[in-house]
Design a protein that fits this description.
- The protein has 165 residues and is of the alpha/beta class.
- It folds into two domains: 73 residues, 3-Layer(bba) Sandwich (FAD/NAD(P)-binding domain); 74 residues, FAD/NAD(P)-binding domain, CATH 3.50.50.
- 30% of the residues lie in helices and 19% in strands.
- It contains four helices and eight strands, in the order βαβαββββαββα.
- The strands form three sheets. It has a three-stranded parallel β-sheet, covered by helices on one side.
- α1 links the parallel β1 and β2.
- It binds flavin-adenine dinucleotide.
- Flavin-adenine dinucleotide binds next to α4.
- Pfam families: Pyr_redox_2 (PF07992).
- GO terms for molecular function: oxidoreductase activity.
């Protein structure tokens, strides 16, 4: 596994479900490895600090990750989890609060910090929810809930407006 963010210490632990031989190449972007070393060691994950230069292959078969300092780490497969970069700045223009991973902070019902503005999918999460839970099922489920709440709010506002003297 190429460690490109602190989340990849966790990903490397998960990969031990798939392979008895997992190596994490911790790049400088992985951050401090020391808080994770106890669990990684127990999980049998080898941690190598370095920067990847290229993936070596024999035909279409991956054989190793070569590091910029000349070391070569044998590998039958390389797992990469690119860090997420949210490209839309609509939420910032509207003044919505973001969390430390840049996700828009929402309530259980998808309400952002700005009244009348809702968010769902990859770009939004509750502060109590784990970061990086990007799945189609979650995005669809959140979208359904937020759509229903939003429709209810708009309908309620319309009724209130019509009923106003
Ligand atoms: C390589 C990869 C593999 C994945 N594999 C899986 C998988 O196997 N199973 C799984 O469950 N999930 C998988 N995911 C995650 C899944 O794709 C996402 O969780 C899901 O697509 C999130 O849906 P979304 O609607 O929140 O965001 P997106 O699908 O990213 O949709 C957001 C849309 O908004 C558009 N947009 C952005 N800015 C603007 C703007 N200013 N104006 C108008 N439109 C805008 C974008 O172009 C995009 O079409 C994978 C993700 C990646 C990147």
């Amino acid at each position: 596994m190429l460690g490109l963010s602190p989340l990849d210490y966790f990903h490397a632990e998960l990969l031990t479900q798939w392979s008895p031989s997992v190596t994490l190449i911790a790049t400088p972007n992985s951050g401090d490895s020391s808080p994770h070393m106890d669990l990684l060691t127990k999980a049998g994950v080898e941690v190598i600090h370095g920067e990847p230069a290229r993936i070596a292959a024999d035909g279409s078969t991956c054989t190793a990750v070569e590091l910029v300092d000349g070391r070569s780490v044998p590998a039958e497969a390389v797992v990469v989890h690119p860090p997420i970069d949210y490209t839309s700045d609509i939420a910032d223009d509207l003044g919505c609060v973001r969390l430390d991973d840049d996700a828009i902070e929402v309530s259980e019902l998808g309400q952002t910090s700005v009244a009348g503005v809702y968010a769902c999918g990859d770009i939004a999460r509750r502060s109590s929810a784990p970061s990086g839970m990007h799945f189609i099922a979650r995005a669809v489920s959140d979208g359904l809930n937020v759509g229903a709440v939003l429709n209810q709010e708009l309908t309620f506002n319309d009724i209130q407006a019509k009923a106003a003297p």
